[in-house]
Amino acid sequence: MQVQIRNLVKSYGEQRAVDGISFEIRRGEIVGFLGPNGAGKTTTMKIITGYLKPDAGEVRFDGVSSMERDFRHKIGYLPETNPLYTDMPVIDYLKLSARLQDVPESEIPARVRKMIEVCGLGDEKHKTIGELSKGYRQRVGLAQAIIHDPELLILDEPTSGLDPNQIVEIRQLIREIGKTKTVILSTHILPEVEATCDRIIIIHRGKLVADSTAGDLRRQAEGKSLLTVRIEGGTSEEQRSALGRISSVQGVESVMEGGVQKWKLEHEGGDDTAAEVFDLCVQRGWKLLEMVPQQQKLEDVFRALTMEN
Amino acid sequence: MKKVWIIARREVESYFSSLAAYVLLVLFLGFTGFFTWLRGNGDIFFRKQADLEVFFAIAMWTLFFFIPAVTMRMLAEERRSGTIEMLLTKKVQTWQVVVGKFLATMLIVAAALLLTLIYYYSVSRLGNIDHGATISGYIGLLLLSAAYAGIGIFASSISKNQIVAFLIAISIGILFQFIAGILASDATGVVGDLLAYLDINRHYQNIQRGVVDTRDVLYFLSLAAMGLLWADYFIERKK
Fold first, then answer.
1. Are A101 and B90 a contacting pair at CB < 8 A?
2. Considering the entire predicted model, what is its pTM?
Protein backbone atom coordinates (compact mmCIF):
# COMPACT_ATOMS: atom_id res chain seq x y z
CA MET A 1 0.00 0.00 0.00
CA GLN A 2 1.24 3.42 -0.88
CA VAL A 3 1.08 6.02 1.87
CA GLN A 4 1.04 9.78 1.51
CA ILE A 5 1.35 12.02 4.51
CA ARG A 6 0.50 15.64 3.96
CA ASN A 7 1.20 18.48 6.35
CA LEU A 8 0.22 16.64 9.48
CA VAL A 9 -0.21 18.80 12.55
CA LYS A 10 -1.12 17.56 16.00
CA SER A 11 -0.90 19.48 19.26
CA TYR A 12 -1.34 18.38 22.83
CA GLY A 13 -2.39 21.53 24.61
CA GLU A 14 0.33 24.07 24.01
CA GLN A 15 2.82 21.59 22.68
CA ARG A 16 3.02 20.78 18.99
CA ALA A 17 3.90 17.12 18.84
CA VAL A 18 3.74 16.98 15.06
CA ASP A 19 4.36 20.17 13.16
CA GLY A 20 3.70 19.95 9.43
CA ILE A 21 5.19 16.61 8.47
CA SER A 22 4.87 15.42 4.87
CA PHE A 23 6.34 12.37 3.21
CA GLU A 24 5.49 9.49 0.96
CA ILE A 25 6.06 5.79 1.24
CA ARG A 26 6.02 3.57 -1.80
CA ARG A 27 4.50 0.14 -1.95
CA GLY A 28 6.77 -2.53 -0.52
CA GLU A 29 9.18 -0.13 1.11
CA ILE A 30 10.55 -0.57 4.63
CA VAL A 31 10.89 2.86 6.13
CA GLY A 32 12.71 3.62 9.36
CA PHE A 33 11.29 6.36 11.49
CA LEU A 34 14.00 7.96 13.56
CA GLY A 35 14.10 10.70 16.09
CA PRO A 36 14.99 11.45 19.70
CA ASN A 37 12.43 10.63 22.37
CA GLY A 38 9.50 12.98 22.15
CA ALA A 39 10.19 13.92 18.54
CA GLY A 40 6.70 12.99 17.43
CA LYS A 41 7.30 9.51 16.02
CA THR A 42 4.61 7.76 18.02
CA THR A 43 2.08 10.52 17.44
CA THR A 44 2.68 10.41 13.69
CA MET A 45 2.26 6.65 13.68
CA LYS A 46 -0.92 6.84 15.72
CA ILE A 47 -2.30 9.29 13.20
CA ILE A 48 -1.44 6.96 10.33
CA THR A 49 -3.24 4.08 12.07
CA GLY A 50 -6.32 6.26 12.42
CA TYR A 51 -6.26 6.12 16.22
CA LEU A 52 -5.59 9.84 16.54
CA LYS A 53 -7.16 12.53 14.42
CA PRO A 54 -4.72 15.16 13.15
CA ASP A 55 -5.51 18.82 13.83
CA ALA A 56 -4.62 19.51 10.21
CA GLY A 57 -3.32 17.63 7.20
CA GLU A 58 -4.27 14.22 5.96
CA VAL A 59 -3.15 10.68 5.36
CA ARG A 60 -3.84 9.07 2.00
CA PHE A 61 -3.64 5.39 1.22
CA ASP A 62 -3.30 4.56 -2.46
CA GLY A 63 -4.53 8.07 -3.15
CA VAL A 64 -7.67 7.86 -0.99
CA SER A 65 -7.95 9.98 2.13
CA SER A 66 -8.35 8.11 5.41
CA MET A 67 -11.24 10.44 6.17
CA GLU A 68 -13.22 9.04 3.26
CA ARG A 69 -12.68 5.36 3.82
CA ASP A 70 -11.83 3.09 6.71
CA PHE A 71 -8.46 1.48 6.05
CA ARG A 72 -7.91 -0.02 9.46
CA HIS A 73 -8.35 -3.63 8.32
CA LYS A 74 -5.53 -3.07 5.82
CA ILE A 75 -3.18 -1.85 8.51
CA GLY A 76 -1.35 -3.88 11.11
CA TYR A 77 -0.14 -2.00 14.15
CA LEU A 78 2.16 -2.86 17.01
CA PRO A 79 2.06 -0.06 19.58
CA GLU A 80 5.19 0.84 21.51
CA THR A 81 3.87 -0.54 24.80
CA ASN A 82 2.56 -3.71 23.12
CA PRO A 83 -0.67 -3.81 25.13
CA LEU A 84 -2.19 -7.30 25.25
CA TYR A 85 -4.98 -9.00 27.17
CA THR A 86 -2.77 -10.79 29.65
CA ASP A 87 -5.60 -13.03 30.86
CA MET A 88 -6.14 -14.58 27.44
CA PRO A 89 -4.46 -17.67 26.00
CA VAL A 90 -2.26 -16.89 22.98
CA ILE A 91 -4.48 -18.75 20.52
CA ASP A 92 -7.69 -17.12 21.73
CA TYR A 93 -6.10 -13.72 21.51
CA LEU A 94 -4.99 -14.28 17.94
CA LYS A 95 -8.47 -15.50 17.03
CA LEU A 96 -9.98 -12.40 18.60
CA SER A 97 -7.61 -10.16 16.63
CA ALA A 98 -8.51 -11.93 13.40
CA ARG A 99 -12.25 -11.65 14.05
CA LEU A 100 -12.01 -7.97 14.87
CA GLN A 101 -10.18 -7.44 11.58
CA ASP A 102 -12.91 -9.11 9.52
CA VAL A 103 -10.99 -12.27 8.66
CA PRO A 104 -13.64 -14.78 7.53
CA GLU A 105 -14.37 -17.35 10.24
CA SER A 106 -13.41 -20.24 7.93
CA GLU A 107 -9.91 -18.85 7.39
CA ILE A 108 -9.17 -18.10 11.02
CA PRO A 109 -7.76 -21.48 12.12
CA ALA A 110 -5.32 -21.51 9.20
CA ARG A 111 -4.27 -17.91 9.82
CA VAL A 112 -3.68 -18.61 13.51
CA ARG A 113 -1.58 -21.67 12.67
CA LYS A 114 0.44 -19.65 10.18
CA MET A 115 1.08 -16.88 12.71
CA ILE A 116 2.21 -19.36 15.33
CA GLU A 117 4.64 -20.80 12.82
CA VAL A 118 5.87 -17.49 11.38
CA CYS A 119 6.30 -15.82 14.77
CA GLY A 120 7.80 -18.89 16.43
CA LEU A 121 5.10 -19.27 19.08
CA GLY A 122 4.79 -23.04 18.82
CA ASP A 123 5.96 -23.89 22.31
CA GLU A 124 4.00 -21.13 23.97
CA LYS A 125 0.71 -21.26 22.15
CA HIS A 126 -1.31 -22.81 24.98
CA LYS A 127 -0.06 -20.43 27.66
CA THR A 128 -1.92 -17.34 28.67
CA ILE A 129 -0.22 -14.16 27.53
CA GLY A 130 0.51 -13.11 31.11
CA GLU A 131 2.80 -16.12 31.50
CA LEU A 132 4.98 -15.22 28.53
CA SER A 133 8.37 -13.55 28.64
CA LYS A 134 8.79 -10.14 27.10
CA GLY A 135 10.28 -11.54 23.89
CA TYR A 136 7.37 -13.88 23.35
CA ARG A 137 4.86 -11.16 24.13
CA GLN A 138 6.50 -9.08 21.45
CA ARG A 139 6.00 -11.96 19.04
CA VAL A 140 2.35 -12.18 20.00
CA GLY A 141 2.13 -8.43 19.40
CA LEU A 142 3.63 -8.88 15.98
CA ALA A 143 1.39 -11.86 15.24
CA GLN A 144 -1.79 -9.91 16.08
CA ALA A 145 -0.55 -7.10 13.84
CA ILE A 146 -0.12 -9.31 10.78
CA ILE A 147 -2.77 -11.99 11.27
CA HIS A 148 -5.18 -10.31 8.85
CA ASP A 149 -2.48 -10.03 6.20
CA PRO A 150 -2.37 -6.23 6.19
CA GLU A 151 -0.88 -4.24 3.35
CA LEU A 152 0.75 -1.75 5.66
CA LEU A 153 2.53 -2.64 8.86
CA ILE A 154 3.29 -0.02 11.48
CA LEU A 155 5.69 -1.03 14.22
CA ASP A 156 6.48 1.34 17.06
CA GLU A 157 9.86 0.36 18.50
CA PRO A 158 9.38 -3.33 17.87
CA THR A 159 12.65 -4.39 19.48
CA SER A 160 12.68 -2.23 22.60
CA GLY A 161 13.34 -4.18 25.74
CA LEU A 162 14.42 -7.36 24.00
CA ASP A 163 17.71 -9.16 24.49
CA PRO A 164 20.24 -9.20 21.62
CA ASN A 165 19.20 -12.63 20.36
CA GLN A 166 15.55 -11.70 20.33
CA ILE A 167 16.37 -8.45 18.56
CA VAL A 168 18.09 -10.34 15.76
CA GLU A 169 15.15 -12.73 15.45
CA ILE A 170 12.52 -10.02 15.40
CA ARG A 171 14.53 -8.05 12.83
CA GLN A 172 14.73 -11.09 10.61
CA LEU A 173 11.03 -11.53 10.96
CA ILE A 174 10.39 -7.92 9.99
CA ARG A 175 12.63 -8.20 6.98
CA GLU A 176 10.82 -11.36 5.95
CA ILE A 177 7.44 -9.65 6.27
CA GLY A 178 8.80 -6.55 4.54
CA LYS A 179 9.39 -8.48 1.35
CA THR A 180 5.70 -8.34 0.56
CA LYS A 181 4.39 -5.45 2.61
CA THR A 182 4.92 -1.78 3.21
CA VAL A 183 6.48 -1.33 6.63
CA ILE A 184 6.96 1.74 8.79
CA LEU A 185 9.08 1.09 11.82
CA SER A 186 10.21 3.50 14.47
CA THR A 187 13.27 3.10 16.60
CA HIS A 188 16.09 4.99 18.12
CA ILE A 189 18.51 2.15 17.65
CA LEU A 190 20.49 3.22 14.59
CA PRO A 191 22.04 -0.07 13.54
CA GLU A 192 18.51 -1.42 13.42
CA VAL A 193 17.55 1.05 10.73
CA GLU A 194 20.62 0.25 8.70
CA ALA A 195 19.96 -3.45 9.09
CA THR A 196 16.30 -3.43 8.15
CA CYS A 197 15.22 -0.30 6.33
CA ASP A 198 15.32 0.85 2.72
CA ARG A 199 14.81 4.43 3.69
CA ILE A 200 15.19 6.64 6.73
CA ILE A 201 12.98 9.46 7.85
CA ILE A 202 14.31 11.53 10.71
CA ILE A 203 12.00 13.80 12.64
CA HIS A 204 12.94 16.22 15.32
CA ARG A 205 10.64 18.38 17.41
CA GLY A 206 7.69 17.45 15.22
CA LYS A 207 9.43 18.42 11.98
CA LEU A 208 10.94 16.31 9.26
CA VAL A 209 14.69 16.88 9.10
CA ALA A 210 15.84 14.14 6.74
CA ASP A 211 14.32 11.71 4.27
CA SER A 212 16.71 9.49 2.31
CA THR A 213 18.60 6.22 2.32
CA ALA A 214 21.18 5.41 4.99
CA GLY A 215 23.99 5.65 2.42
CA ASP A 216 22.83 9.00 1.07
CA LEU A 217 22.44 10.40 4.53
CA ARG A 218 25.94 9.43 5.40
CA ARG A 219 27.39 10.84 2.21
CA GLN A 220 25.45 14.03 2.58
CA ALA A 221 26.71 14.59 6.11
CA GLU A 222 30.17 13.39 5.23
CA GLY A 223 31.24 15.43 2.22
CA LYS A 224 34.73 14.45 3.16
CA SER A 225 36.14 11.07 4.08
CA LEU A 226 38.82 10.18 6.54
CA LEU A 227 41.71 7.80 6.07
CA THR A 228 43.95 6.72 8.88
CA VAL A 229 47.45 5.64 7.84
CA ARG A 230 50.53 4.48 9.68
CA ILE A 231 53.85 4.49 7.88
CA GLU A 232 57.30 3.26 8.85
CA GLY A 233 60.29 5.01 7.28
CA GLY A 234 61.46 8.59 6.96
CA THR A 235 61.01 11.23 9.63
CA SER A 236 57.72 12.44 10.88
CA GLU A 237 58.17 15.70 8.98
CA GLU A 238 59.00 13.98 5.72
CA GLN A 239 55.88 11.85 6.05
CA ARG A 240 53.68 14.83 6.76
CA SER A 241 54.88 16.90 3.83
CA ALA A 242 54.79 13.97 1.40
CA LEU A 243 51.25 13.08 2.40
CA GLY A 244 50.24 16.74 2.20
CA ARG A 245 51.44 16.90 -1.39
CA ILE A 246 48.96 14.27 -2.57
CA SER A 247 46.49 16.27 -4.64
CA SER A 248 43.25 14.83 -3.26
CA VAL A 249 44.31 15.20 0.37
CA GLN A 250 43.01 18.34 1.99
CA GLY A 251 44.35 18.05 5.47
CA VAL A 252 46.86 16.01 7.42
CA GLU A 253 46.55 15.61 11.12
CA SER A 254 48.89 13.77 13.43
CA VAL A 255 47.37 11.52 16.06
CA MET A 256 49.00 9.33 18.64
CA GLU A 257 47.24 6.05 19.19
CA GLY A 258 48.67 3.52 21.61
CA GLY A 259 52.08 5.19 21.54
CA VAL A 260 52.43 5.08 17.76
CA GLN A 261 52.08 7.94 15.39
CA LYS A 262 49.36 7.85 12.78
CA TRP A 263 48.11 10.32 10.24
CA LYS A 264 44.53 11.23 9.68
CA LEU A 265 44.00 12.33 6.11
CA GLU A 266 40.98 14.33 5.22
CA HIS A 267 40.22 13.76 1.55
CA GLU A 268 37.52 13.57 -1.01
CA GLY A 269 39.10 11.19 -3.45
CA GLY A 270 37.46 7.95 -2.49
CA ASP A 271 39.68 4.99 -3.30
CA ASP A 272 42.08 7.12 -5.39
CA THR A 273 43.56 8.64 -2.29
CA ALA A 274 44.30 5.24 -0.83
CA ALA A 275 46.01 4.23 -4.09
CA GLU A 276 48.10 7.38 -4.09
CA VAL A 277 49.18 6.85 -0.51
CA PHE A 278 50.26 3.35 -1.46
CA ASP A 279 52.18 4.58 -4.50
CA LEU A 280 53.90 7.21 -2.39
CA CYS A 281 55.13 4.61 0.04
CA VAL A 282 56.40 2.42 -2.79
CA GLN A 283 58.30 5.36 -4.35
CA ARG A 284 59.96 6.35 -1.09
CA GLY A 285 60.61 2.81 0.02
CA TRP A 286 58.45 3.29 3.15
CA LYS A 287 56.45 0.54 4.72
CA LEU A 288 52.72 1.01 4.92
CA LEU A 289 51.70 -0.59 8.20
CA GLU A 290 48.12 0.47 8.41
CA MET A 291 45.56 2.13 6.20
CA VAL A 292 41.97 2.31 7.43
CA PRO A 293 39.20 4.20 5.67
CA GLN A 294 36.84 5.65 8.20
CA GLN A 295 33.16 5.87 7.54
CA GLN A 296 31.24 8.47 9.33
CA LYS A 297 28.78 6.68 11.53
CA LEU A 298 25.05 7.07 11.22
CA GLU A 299 25.06 8.06 14.86
CA ASP A 300 27.03 11.16 13.97
CA VAL A 301 24.64 12.04 11.19
CA PHE A 302 21.72 11.55 13.52
CA ARG A 303 23.30 13.68 16.20
CA ALA A 304 24.19 16.42 13.75
CA LEU A 305 20.60 16.58 12.56
CA THR A 306 18.90 16.45 15.91
CA MET A 307 21.26 18.29 18.24
CA GLU A 308 19.73 21.17 20.10
CA ASN A 309 20.98 24.42 18.56
CA MET B 1 -23.54 -5.98 15.57
CA LYS B 2 -21.14 -8.86 15.01
CA LYS B 3 -18.31 -6.79 16.46
CA VAL B 4 -20.42 -5.93 19.50
CA TRP B 5 -20.97 -9.61 20.08
CA ILE B 6 -17.24 -10.41 19.68
CA ILE B 7 -16.36 -7.77 22.26
CA ALA B 8 -19.10 -8.94 24.64
CA ARG B 9 -18.05 -12.56 24.36
CA ARG B 10 -14.43 -11.83 25.11
CA GLU B 11 -15.54 -9.75 28.11
CA VAL B 12 -17.78 -12.47 29.54
CA GLU B 13 -15.11 -15.12 29.03
CA SER B 14 -12.53 -12.92 30.67
CA TYR B 15 -14.90 -12.21 33.55
CA PHE B 16 -15.63 -15.83 34.31
CA SER B 17 -11.97 -16.81 34.02
CA SER B 18 -11.12 -14.82 37.13
CA LEU B 19 -11.69 -15.91 40.70
CA ALA B 20 -12.95 -12.46 41.64
CA ALA B 21 -15.98 -13.08 39.43
CA TYR B 22 -17.07 -16.05 41.52
CA VAL B 23 -16.39 -14.27 44.79
CA LEU B 24 -18.59 -11.45 43.58
CA LEU B 25 -21.29 -13.84 42.45
CA VAL B 26 -21.25 -15.67 45.78
CA LEU B 27 -21.46 -12.36 47.63
CA PHE B 28 -24.41 -11.31 45.51
CA LEU B 29 -26.27 -14.56 46.04
CA GLY B 30 -25.22 -14.70 49.70
CA PHE B 31 -26.52 -11.27 50.59
CA THR B 32 -29.74 -11.55 48.61
CA GLY B 33 -30.31 -15.04 49.94
CA PHE B 34 -29.67 -14.04 53.53
CA PHE B 35 -32.03 -11.09 53.51
CA THR B 36 -34.68 -12.97 51.56
CA TRP B 37 -34.73 -16.13 53.66
CA LEU B 38 -32.82 -15.91 56.91
CA ARG B 39 -32.97 -12.39 58.24
CA GLY B 40 -35.92 -13.19 60.50
CA ASN B 41 -37.81 -9.96 60.88
CA GLY B 42 -39.14 -9.15 57.42
CA ASP B 43 -38.03 -12.21 55.49
CA ILE B 44 -40.26 -14.52 53.49
CA PHE B 45 -41.10 -16.78 56.44
CA PHE B 46 -41.91 -13.80 58.61
CA ARG B 47 -44.30 -12.38 56.04
CA LYS B 48 -45.95 -15.76 55.49
CA GLN B 49 -46.77 -14.81 51.91
CA ALA B 50 -45.73 -16.84 48.91
CA ASP B 51 -44.24 -13.99 46.91
CA LEU B 52 -40.80 -12.62 46.06
CA GLU B 53 -41.43 -9.04 47.12
CA VAL B 54 -38.69 -9.26 49.73
CA PHE B 55 -36.27 -10.59 47.16
CA PHE B 56 -37.04 -7.84 44.65
CA ALA B 57 -36.59 -5.17 47.30
CA ILE B 58 -33.25 -6.50 48.44
CA ALA B 59 -31.93 -7.35 44.96
CA MET B 60 -32.24 -3.71 44.03
CA TRP B 61 -29.59 -2.99 46.64
CA THR B 62 -27.32 -5.93 46.02
CA LEU B 63 -27.30 -5.09 42.31
CA PHE B 64 -26.58 -1.50 43.24
CA PHE B 65 -23.15 -2.70 44.42
CA PHE B 66 -22.76 -5.81 42.27
CA ILE B 67 -23.06 -4.08 38.89
CA PRO B 68 -20.50 -1.29 39.48
CA ALA B 69 -18.14 -4.00 40.70
CA VAL B 70 -18.60 -5.79 37.39
CA THR B 71 -18.36 -2.70 35.17
CA MET B 72 -15.56 -0.87 37.00
CA ARG B 73 -12.75 -2.58 35.16
CA MET B 74 -14.32 -2.81 31.74
CA LEU B 75 -13.12 0.44 30.19
CA ALA B 76 -10.83 1.68 32.97
CA GLU B 77 -8.57 -1.35 32.65
CA GLU B 78 -8.69 -1.16 28.88
CA ARG B 79 -7.40 2.40 29.07
CA ARG B 80 -4.90 1.80 31.84
CA SER B 81 -3.20 -1.07 30.03
CA GLY B 82 -3.48 0.58 26.61
CA THR B 83 -5.42 -2.31 25.08
CA ILE B 84 -8.09 0.16 24.01
CA GLU B 85 -5.57 1.38 21.43
CA MET B 86 -5.18 -2.16 20.20
CA LEU B 87 -8.95 -2.48 19.84
CA LEU B 88 -9.60 0.83 18.17
CA THR B 89 -6.82 0.47 15.61
CA LYS B 90 -8.61 -2.65 14.42
CA LYS B 91 -11.81 -2.46 12.46
CA VAL B 92 -13.93 -1.64 15.49
CA GLN B 93 -15.86 1.51 16.31
CA THR B 94 -15.79 3.03 19.76
CA TRP B 95 -19.54 2.57 20.17
CA GLN B 96 -19.16 -1.12 19.37
CA VAL B 97 -16.69 -1.47 22.22
CA VAL B 98 -18.97 0.42 24.61
CA VAL B 99 -22.12 -1.47 23.64
CA GLY B 100 -20.19 -4.76 23.71
CA LYS B 101 -19.19 -4.08 27.30
CA PHE B 102 -22.75 -3.17 28.18
CA LEU B 103 -24.04 -6.38 26.63
CA ALA B 104 -21.42 -8.35 28.55
CA THR B 105 -22.55 -6.73 31.81
CA MET B 106 -26.15 -7.61 31.09
CA LEU B 107 -25.20 -11.22 30.34
CA ILE B 108 -23.28 -11.49 33.60
CA VAL B 109 -26.18 -9.96 35.53
CA ALA B 110 -28.62 -12.25 33.75
CA ALA B 111 -26.50 -15.23 34.78
CA ALA B 112 -26.61 -14.07 38.40
CA LEU B 113 -30.36 -13.52 38.25
CA LEU B 114 -30.82 -16.89 36.61
CA LEU B 115 -29.38 -18.48 39.73
CA THR B 116 -32.02 -16.73 41.84
CA LEU B 117 -34.74 -18.59 39.97
CA ILE B 118 -34.22 -21.23 42.64
CA TYR B 119 -35.96 -18.82 45.04
CA TYR B 120 -38.84 -18.61 42.64
CA TYR B 121 -39.08 -22.37 42.48
CA SER B 122 -38.85 -22.72 46.27
CA VAL B 123 -41.51 -20.14 46.96
CA SER B 124 -43.80 -21.62 44.33
CA ARG B 125 -43.65 -24.88 46.30
CA LEU B 126 -44.58 -23.09 49.53
CA GLY B 127 -47.80 -21.62 48.31
CA ASN B 128 -49.65 -20.05 45.43
CA ILE B 129 -47.17 -17.63 43.89
CA ASP B 130 -48.34 -14.85 41.61
CA HIS B 131 -46.49 -15.70 38.40
CA GLY B 132 -47.34 -12.41 36.70
CA ALA B 133 -45.94 -10.34 39.54
CA THR B 134 -42.79 -12.44 39.56
CA ILE B 135 -42.24 -11.96 35.84
CA SER B 136 -42.74 -8.22 36.04
CA GLY B 137 -40.45 -8.24 39.07
CA TYR B 138 -37.68 -9.81 37.05
CA ILE B 139 -38.33 -7.43 34.15
CA GLY B 140 -37.97 -4.60 36.64
CA LEU B 141 -34.68 -6.01 37.89
CA LEU B 142 -33.32 -6.31 34.35
CA LEU B 143 -34.36 -2.76 33.50
CA LEU B 144 -32.83 -1.50 36.71
CA SER B 145 -29.66 -3.43 35.89
CA ALA B 146 -29.50 -1.85 32.43
CA ALA B 147 -29.60 1.60 34.03
CA TYR B 148 -26.94 0.68 36.60
CA ALA B 149 -24.81 -0.91 33.86
CA GLY B 150 -25.00 2.23 31.72
CA ILE B 151 -23.95 4.35 34.68
CA GLY B 152 -21.19 1.88 35.59
CA ILE B 153 -19.75 1.84 32.10
CA PHE B 154 -19.81 5.60 31.94
CA ALA B 155 -17.94 5.75 35.26
CA SER B 156 -15.42 3.25 33.93
CA SER B 157 -14.80 5.42 30.88
CA ILE B 158 -13.73 8.50 32.79
CA SER B 159 -11.09 7.02 35.07
CA LYS B 160 -8.18 4.68 34.49
CA ASN B 161 -8.52 3.55 38.09
CA GLN B 162 -11.05 0.80 38.76
CA ILE B 163 -11.70 1.81 42.35
CA VAL B 164 -12.37 5.38 41.33
CA ALA B 165 -14.70 4.10 38.61
CA PHE B 166 -16.55 2.02 41.20
CA LEU B 167 -16.94 4.97 43.57
CA ILE B 168 -18.12 7.28 40.79
CA ALA B 169 -20.73 4.72 39.73
CA ILE B 170 -21.96 4.36 43.30
CA SER B 171 -22.12 8.13 43.74
CA ILE B 172 -24.16 8.60 40.58
CA GLY B 173 -26.36 5.73 41.72
CA ILE B 174 -26.97 7.41 45.08
CA LEU B 175 -27.96 10.57 43.23
CA PHE B 176 -30.80 8.76 41.49
CA GLN B 177 -31.54 6.43 44.38
CA PHE B 178 -31.80 8.92 47.28
CA ILE B 179 -30.99 12.50 46.46
CA ALA B 180 -33.56 12.94 43.70
CA GLY B 181 -36.33 11.49 45.87
CA ILE B 182 -35.39 13.50 48.97
CA LEU B 183 -35.15 16.78 47.05
CA ALA B 184 -38.40 16.03 45.23
CA SER B 185 -40.28 15.84 48.51
CA ASP B 186 -39.21 19.41 49.32
CA ALA B 187 -39.48 20.95 45.87
CA THR B 188 -42.68 21.93 44.16
CA GLY B 189 -43.76 22.73 40.64
CA VAL B 190 -41.76 21.78 37.58
CA VAL B 191 -38.56 21.21 39.55
CA GLY B 192 -40.38 18.93 41.95
CA ASP B 193 -41.89 16.97 39.09
CA LEU B 194 -38.56 16.67 37.37
CA LEU B 195 -36.80 15.46 40.51
CA ALA B 196 -39.59 13.02 41.20
CA TYR B 197 -39.25 11.77 37.66
CA LEU B 198 -35.51 11.23 38.14
CA ASP B 199 -36.05 9.17 41.29
CA ILE B 200 -35.19 5.59 40.39
CA ASN B 201 -37.27 4.10 43.23
CA ARG B 202 -40.52 5.42 41.90
CA HIS B 203 -40.09 3.80 38.50
CA TYR B 204 -38.83 0.59 40.00
CA GLN B 205 -41.75 0.32 42.39
CA ASN B 206 -44.22 1.00 39.60
CA ILE B 207 -42.94 -2.08 37.84
CA GLN B 208 -42.81 -4.10 41.06
CA ARG B 209 -46.49 -3.41 41.49
CA GLY B 210 -46.97 -5.37 38.32
CA VAL B 211 -47.48 -2.48 35.94
CA VAL B 212 -44.90 -2.46 33.15
CA ASP B 213 -45.54 1.03 31.81
CA THR B 214 -43.64 2.26 28.73
CA ARG B 215 -42.81 5.47 30.58
CA ASP B 216 -40.94 3.56 33.26
CA VAL B 217 -39.29 1.31 30.69
CA LEU B 218 -38.19 4.39 28.79
CA TYR B 219 -36.79 5.92 31.95
CA PHE B 220 -34.47 2.97 32.60
CA LEU B 221 -33.46 2.57 28.98
CA SER B 222 -32.68 6.25 28.56
CA LEU B 223 -30.52 6.18 31.69
CA ALA B 224 -28.61 3.27 30.15
CA ALA B 225 -28.35 5.00 26.78
CA MET B 226 -27.12 8.23 28.36
CA GLY B 227 -24.39 6.34 30.17
CA LEU B 228 -23.26 4.63 27.00
CA LEU B 229 -23.31 7.81 24.93
CA TRP B 230 -21.21 9.61 27.50
CA ALA B 231 -18.83 6.66 27.71
CA ASP B 232 -18.41 6.74 23.95
CA TYR B 233 -17.75 10.46 24.08
CA PHE B 234 -15.12 10.15 26.81
CA ILE B 235 -13.31 7.26 25.16
CA GLU B 236 -13.11 9.25 21.94
CA ARG B 237 -11.96 12.35 23.74
CA LYS B 238 -9.34 10.74 25.93
CA LYS B 239 -7.54 8.87 23.18
1. yes
2. 0.84
